[in-house]
């Protein structure tokens, strides 16, 4: 990784009201900021520095940047945003809420950081991402992002032909098993107390997927710090090198309660995300959401694209507001003449 820019470098916080504040410095937030900065908008990205894909060794399925380290991708993104005048501020947002609008009704927002500083903005782009909530199983969490994976498209090629286990957490795990079966001939489905009807068992058997009904007690580590396998509640041991698990996906909402953004449950109790309309628009005027916070299944490329689209719509909204303000001023001057 290049060291020309410190990945934790932080810019000064402007004192004046800026056109847009982006909450979240991942792919969606940075690409939204890039679109705004290239449109000559004053934009500040507040980056908490905890990207969802930090444990991953590489970003996959991103054309032209296949396998790039997540930290390097973000470093490049920050550099590009700064190259057009955007600012990246390291910090944690503890409060964000509407403030008094302008006399003509144009919205304004106050964003408060953990150190007490307050930033004011005309528009907000929420790109906080989500948290993967893992099953509460001893020995599982330390292997997250390496021996424990969740996405066949993010990690599949890297774990091909390994002995893979699928830890069932609900209905989504059934589909999970079929996707990971494409990657290996040695797949074991650990039902772990979940229901598995006879039709599903027959389909699994037809694909050579072995089912273990005894619940799992713990994930055990190998001498190389990888996964050795799963210990069952009856004491038996099932050797596995990779464990796939569908996580619960929870949009990061810390500090955003004051915005009163609507949220929506995912199917099959898989989690909760922000509810949005076209281009990430929300029911709160002046606020957009992009990336995993509203589209939990989006990979990096899709999140970046959503951020770019939201940024373009924010710029268009600002352009309309600027024109309305200019017209009002012109009419006022004409009336006073």
Describe this structure in words.
By secondary structure, this protein is an alpha/beta fold. The chain folds into two domains: 18-131 and 248-336, FAD/NAD(P)-binding domain (3-Layer(bba) Sandwich), CATH 3.50.50; 135-245, FAD/NAD(P)-binding domain. Helices cover 26% and strands 26% of the residues. It has six helices and 19 strands. It has helices spanning 27-38, 70-83, 152-155, 172-181, 198-206, 300-336; strands at 18-23, 43-47, 87-90, 93-99, 108-113, 118-126, 130-133, 148-149, 164-167, 187-190, 210-212, 216-221, 227-232, 237-239, 242-245, 248-251, 263-265, 271-274, 287-289. Strands 1, 2, 3, 4, 5, 6 and 19 form a seven-stranded mixed sheet that branches. Strand 5 and strand 6 (118-126) form a beta hairpin. The longest helix has 37 residues, at 300-336. The protein is elongated. The N and C termini lie far apart (62 Å). The relative contact order is 0.17. Residues 1-7 have low confidence and may be disordered.
Which regions contain 5 or more consecutive residues with pLDDT less than 50?
Answer: 1-7
CATH topology title of the largest domain: FAD/NAD(P)-binding domain
Assigned CATH architecture of the largest domain: 3-Layer(bba) Sandwich
Number of helical elements: 6
Task: Tell me the span between the first and last alpha carbons.
Answer: 62 Å
In percent, how helical is the residue content? Answer: 25-40%
CATH class of the largest domain: Alpha Beta
Q: Overall mean pLDDT score?
A: 93
Largest sheet: 7 strands, mixed
Number of domains: 2
CATH superfamily of the largest domain: FAD/NAD(P)-binding domain
- Principal-axes geometry comes out as elongated
| Beta-strand residue percentage | 25-35%
